[in-house]
Design goal:
The protein has helices spanning about 1-10, 10-20, 30-40, 50-70, 85-100, 105, 115-125, 135-150, 160-175, 200-230, 240-250, 265-270, 280-295, 305-320, 320-330, 330-345, 350-370, 415-430, 450-465, 475-485, 485-490, 500-505, 510-515, and strands at about 25-30, 260, 375-380, 390, 400-410, 435-440, 465-470, 495. It is an alpha/beta fold.
């Protein structure tokens, strides 16, 4: 029922403002959360029925409990695993579902909402000839008026004016006598007390969906709070924001409120109006309660097709084409995440669409981290200092005996196979380069599997008359190698602090007979090797 959306903009908004960390975030019902809640509960109970309302309140309580536990456990960083591409794809999919859910109200033909996305659209096209012209006319007029105000007078309350225009049109046409349904008067009272169904069976049934709602709500709230904080120069505490959102939903479930999260529109208006403290959100919620008491009876004249027309415009505005185009241009893997999440939102249960996007994002992240960047380096002849440059940027001859590479990334169990294969490829590519120097300034982390791999490669090179050398390692990486005894296996004499120290020592260990006839002589130290004086 529509009044529950108003209730959700009151109590949860006050609790989230008082217990969250953002000065400007305003919580309340959001489109994405609303569509998830509706899609989750509508197959289980008839919308607006007492069972439906009870299950929504239970879902809200559980989602808030998950959020609160995550906040108390200081797991605020979890929200970072829901990538921007997942949110954009999910929101776009939710927008299409919103438009789909309103088609029966647009054409005036009853279509069961429990059916799939494709089935609903096939019903719309097959039954379009049965459309009620009065319903369709009111919806179109409302949508056109809202669009005109959005384009020509964007500062005016175009949606409100459009709904008034739709209501007047319904009165003039005598639409009620022609099958046009009205919203009906909202109850003019404050949020009544309620109680979620906390039975074991109900909690078990709704727990998976509640977790999805919790993560989506936290992602929305923290993302919006951070977005505004960048302009207000405020530091956001994700853990405290988790606590605030969790408490708002737990408490809200006992005051007839369904799952709430941060609203970008209301938060943006709050910041633009000059809000400086969370009390602005509190006063906004109190003002809404007063307005509800005054205007609730007027909704009796609002036709449902008019609301459906407005929801079509809302759905369109949710599709962030700017960021969709940017993601597609910037990164194909991220574009795949976006597309997969979008399609999952349309064709699988909505709460699992988020999981699909998150899991795919994590898989792509693991794939990237398991393939550290390998770069062949050569001394930069244009630099007066000891500096190396990527050979792809400046093609230069290499030392026939020494291969210099830089590894950028973490050397952990998921990456050791790739690193070992790369080293093996380099050795087969040029067997005479039996000495390998690894510049480790880009290695941020190493685990036991990584240490074992380096020790194994060092032994393998030693057996073929070469050596593995490491230089520029971070202190944390060096400490792990030392604690595990791997420095002894690699050879402490093969570990160097700087590139200068490494090259000076390694060149002196190279085969002097091969140096005698070498034409590359790319290192400064080569001048001291046999053959230089013969030039």
């Amino acid at each position: 029922p529509p009044e529950y959306g108003l209730y959700s903009a009151m109590v949860p908004a006050i609790i989230a403002a008082l217990f969250g960390s953002s000065y400007h975030l305003i919580s309340g019902p959001t489109t994405a959360i609303s569509i998830v809640v509706f899609s989750t509960i509508s197959p289980l109970a008839a919308p607006a029925s007492p069972e439906y309302i009870s299950m929504v309140l239970t879902l809200t309580f559980l989602a808030g409990l998950f959020q609160l536990v995550l906040g108390v456990a200081r797991l605020g960083a979890l929200v970072n695993f829901v990538s921007h591409s997942v949110v954009v794809g999910f929101t776009a999919g939710a927008a299409v579902l919103i438009a789909t859910s309103q088609m029966s109200n647009i054409i005036g033909v009853a279509i069961p909402q429990k059916h799939s996305f494709i089935h609903i659209w096939s019903e719309v096209f097959s039954r379009s000839s049965d459309a009620n012209p009065y319903v369709l006319s009111i919806a179109i007029v409302t949508l056109v008026v809202a669009l005109v105000f959005k384009v020509v007078l964007p500062r005016w309350p175009g949606m409100l004016i459009a709904m008034i225009a739709g209501s007047l049109m319904a009165v003039v046409l005598g639409a009620k006598e022609h099958g046009v349904r009205l919203v009906g008067a909202l109850p003019a009272h404050l949020p009544p007390l309620s109680h979620p169904d906390l039975t074991t069976a109900s909690l078990r049934q709704l727990a998976p969906a509640a977790l999805a709602v919790a993560m989506l709500g936290l992602t929305e709230a923290v993302s919006i709070a951070r977005s505004v904080a960048t302009r207000s120069e405020q530091r956001i505490d994700s853990n405290q924001e988790f606590v605030g959102q969790g408490l708002s939903n737990v408490v809200g479930s006992f005051f007839s409120s369904y799952a709430a999260s941060g609203s970008f529109t209301r938060t943006g208006v709050n910041y633009s109006a000059g809000a400086q403290t969370p009390l602005a959100a509190v006063f906004a919620a109190v003002s809404l309660a007063v307005i509800l008491l005054l205007i609730a009876p007027l909704t009796a004249y609002l036709p449902i097709p008019s609301m459906a027309g407005i929801l079509l415009l809302v759905a369109y505005s949710l599709i962030d084409m700017h960021h969709i185009r940017r993601i597609i241009r910037t990164s194909m893997p991220e574009a795949m995440v976006l597309l997969t999440t979008f399609l999952a939102t349309l064709f699988v249960e909505l709460e699992f669409a988020i999981y699909v996007g998150v899991i795919l994002s994590l898989l792509l992240y693991l794939n990237r981290t398991s393939h550290p960047h390998f770069v062949t380096m050569v001394p930069n002849p244009e630099s007066s200092r000891r500096s190396f440059i990527n050979i792809l940027h400046m093609p230069m001859p290499e030392c026939p005996q020494l291969k210099v590479i830089r590894i950028d990334g973490s050397i952990f169990f998921g990456a050791v196979n790739h690193i070992a294969e790369e080293i093996d490829r380099l050795r087969k590519q040029n067997p005479e380069q039996c000495h390998i120097l690894v510049i480790g300034s880009g290695i941020n982390f190493i685990d036991v599997a990584g240490c074992e791999m380096l020790a194994t490669e060092a032994h393998s090179l030693h057996m073929t008359g070469g050596k593995l050398y490491l230089c520029g390692l971070k202190s944390e990486v060096l400490e792990v190698l030392r604690r595990g005894g791997y420095l002894q296996r690699i050879g402490e004499e093969n570990i160097f602090r700087t590139k200068t120290e490494a090259v000076r020592n390694i060149v002196s260990r190279l085969d002097p007979q091969r140096c005698r006839y070498c034409k590359a002589r790319i290192f400064n130290e080569c001048r001291q090797m046999p053959g230089e004086e013969e030039k």
